[in-house]
Design a protein that fits this description.
The protein has three helices and seven strands, in the order βββββαβααβ. By secondary structure, it is α+β, with helices and mostly antiparallel strands.
Length: 97
Amino acid sequence: MTAEKTYQRSGEVVCRQVGTESILVPIRNHVGDLESIFVLSPVAARIWQTLDGPAAVDTIVDAVCAEFEVDRETAASDVTQLLDELEQALLVNRVSS
């Protein structure tokens, strides 16, 4: 059940704003992993902002629905997909809620 999943940012990634784009750069052993850079869409950047502390998936979906014109089902699917990708890339961690 996605309501129970809670995520937070990994301590091994930095986010930089370049023009209008948000870019995630994984930092491993104090070196930027330039081959694993993520460029975030505006929606993904908003999701990243909600992860400044532990955040439940439902809270993230609520933020996306409030800010963007999207139905809850689509937002939930998109949020889950992005979090799965970020977790696989070790950019976010699932935490106990």
